[in-house]
Amino acid sequence: MTDSPPAFFPARARIAVLTCEPVGVLDYLAPEQGVRQGQLVQVPLGPRRVLGLVWGEGQGDFDLSRLRPVAKVLDAEPFRPEFLDFLTRAADYTLTPPPLILRMATRAPDLDQPPAARPVIVPGNAAPQRMTAARQRVLDVMAQHGGAGFAPSELAQLAGVGSSVVKGLVAQGALTQIEAPRDAPYPRLDPARPGKPLAPDQQAAADRLRAAIRAGGYGTTLLRGVTGSGKTEVYLEAVAETLRAGRQALVLLPEIALSAEFLDRVEARFGARPGEWHSGITRSERRRLWHMAGRAQVGLVVGARSALFLPFRDLGLIVVDEEHDSSYKQEDVVFYNARDMAVLRASICKAQVVLASATPSLESWVNAASGKYARLDLHARFGSADLPDMAAIDLRAEDMKPGRWISPTLEGAVRSRLARGEQSLLFLNRRGFAPVTICRACGEQIGCHQCDARMVEHRFQNRLVCHQCGDTRPIPQACPSCGVAGKLAPVGPGVERIAEEVATLFPGARATVLSSDLFHSARALKDTIAQISGGDTDIIIGTQIVAKGHNFPRLTLVGAIDADLGLQGADLRAAERSFQLMRQVAGRAGRQAGTEPGSALLQTHQPDHPVIRAILSGQDEAFWDAEAAARQAAGMPPFGRLAGIILSHPDLGVVADFARHLAANAAPLVQAGAELWGPAPAPIARIRGRHRMRMLVHAPRQAPLQTALADWLAPHKPPANLRLAVDIDPQSFL
Ligand code: ADP
Ligand code: ZN
């Protein structure tokens, strides 16, 4: 650990004020004992007291007597200089005001409250006299969380019962209420416990990572291998080495993959559960984890992307699993990619990064090819040899009846799985019943009132839903435009429509639809996934949520209903995305060691499309190389740089005028060697009643893009209520 002492300010300090609206960085008088950089404080702001962070030495040259004093220094571990450095550079990189970034780093409740004792519930020693469904749910939640100490209200909330149910269980001795210290350290993970004996390529990869961790500097490694090749087992060895070195480790997972299964695996390996950080944890866990990260009293944190902004005291390893996953990109308030920020943070705090994927992002692929990242490959699936057999179904040659989406060939393949008692997965990345509802009398397509988007029929809910703003309304009887009744028709398939077709084709089969909108909680989704794994389903019909990390042992067939879906559109990453998604989905088939390889069938109208051919051939490297060459020829990322500027306002005239004004004053961009494309209406030209325009700034790789953008935008004050967002390295052009 680099241990430069934090700067000390005896008299006055600049405090970053962490309110909802970015106030900025203000000068305050230090308390008598002075303050240190990185300390959390409370400061007065108008009539309020707000959270602040000591940012630097006071600078203003006005009268000391006019400054207000810091109200209170909070009892939290001060942010380390390396962490402040990371936050500053993340702010610079993403062109975000520092207080907004700092707010992400202080997103824990009650930071200004002392760590008092609090009542928590632990298992009791008696059986309840009478078991009810509600009581059982409470006990199940306790069991699922290893008897973890929840506050009574949290436990009731998690179990979805009233607090009287918990009280009743306590009264009967089935649960016990104790006073526990609020921010208790996490149980120590034991790196000395043996892991699984590794296969030779796993061993080689683990050795390299361990050596890098022992050496103690920064480095990034791309760990590549198909799903099931044993990557997790390898990076858990890197975690073990990090713990042995007395440092902390962070494993980032796409939110949906944050499953109990993963936590169980960590527990099996290290004898205790890691800290968890994601949208599903309770307020008190959130607060505890935040403090324990700062005091190095949690060894391993498993979390979603925002865990990267926890104030770890000594972070030695960051694993980004499924590093290509688009959920690592946040496109709200602060636009950042957690993968890139992981590399930034590690380079500052001298940590190792492991980027794990079967289908790396093109950026990581290019960085590995150029030697900027190390690369480790796991070649085979653990314990079994093959990827699934993959083939195209040429829809032009199939006898497709109107209103049918499952071709006769795919139907036959599913039938043979049913006969053998195996599972099939039909994949279509489209939620709902039909993407378009059209009036056969006037041709009108039913659209959202708030957005420039079509309403999608969701038949299970019996409503039309806008996938942009979430607005819903009943499915109308008559056309809202011409008033003719009985002529509205769904066009095209969504997963619900495929489910209907499955019910017609395979009446005896048990089918389950997996689509994010059909599950009101993460737990409901987990339960369904567990049921599928256990064999309660013959045919799974799913959107992209099935692509990620679930292990369905009896699944031997994957059928992609429309493999062409992602190939359309002008998006820079269309090919890359399609390739990754199809590969991931195909990888769900035949994952289990010792069984026959599964098979993946791709329904397509363009079997000769280069992306489809690349998926089928299994020659990933040829695909990445060709895709990299095409991007290089066009000067596109990662060989050139892009920034998206998104402007929105309820009035189209206002947004168009301001966009034109910015474009007319783009000299700072030109001077930096960048070009401005647009303004143009964004592909979704209106969302939630706000008109949207978009510009793209394209620059050579070495150009000072951020400085040029700041110089360009800073002098122009946007009109009231106009939102301007800068998206460095945009993932999509929506
Ligand atoms: P990946 O992360 O590449 O998808 P995993 O690490 O999850 O792969 O491994 C896939 C499966 O194989 C898991 O069930 C895991 O427990 C098992 N496995 C991996 N490596 C070994 C090993 N060396 N010995 C025994 N089982 C292993
Ligand atoms: Zn809408």
Automatic annotation (TrEMBL):
The residues that hold Zn(2+) 1 are 439, 442, 479, 482
Q: What class of enzyme is it?
A: isomerase
Obligatory cofactor(s): Zn(2+)
Please list where the region (Disordered) is annotated.
181-203
Question: Which domain of life does the protein's organism represent?
Answer: Bacteria
Give the co-factor note. Answer: Binds 2 zinc ions per subunit.
Keywords of this entry? ATP-binding, DNA replication, DNA-binding, Helicase, Hydrolase, Isomerase, Metal-binding, Nucleotide-binding, Primosome, Zinc
Matching InterPro entries: DEAD/DEAH_box_helicase_dom, Helicase_ATP-bd, Helicase_C-like, P-loop_NTPase, PriA, PriA_3primeBD, PriA_3primeBD_sf, PriA_C
Q: Where is the Helicase ATP-binding domain positioned along the sequence?
A: 212-378
Recorded catalytic reaction(s): these are: Couples ATP hydrolysis with the unwinding of duplex DNA by translocating in the 3'-5' direction; ATP + H2O = ADP + phosphate + H(+)
The entry marks the following residues as binding Zn(2+) 2, namely 448, 451, 466, 469
Q: What is its EC number?
A: 5.6.2.4
Q: Does the keyword Ligase apply?
A: no
Q: Which Pfam families match?
A: DEAD, PriA_3primeBD, PriA_C, Zn_ribbon_PriA
Q: By its UniProt entry, which CDD domains does this protein fall under?
A: DEXHc_priA
Against HAMAP family, the record matches this protein to: PriA
Subunit annotation: Component of the replication restart primosome.
Q: Which family does it belong to?
A: Belongs to the helicase family. PriA subfamily.
Q: What does this protein do?
A: Initiates the restart of stalled replication forks, which reloads the replicative helicase on sites other than the origin of replication. Recognizes and binds to abandoned replication forks and remodels them to uncover a helicase loading site. Promotes assembly of the primosome at these replication forks.
UniProt protein name: Replication restart protein PriA
Q: Which gene encodes it?
A: priA
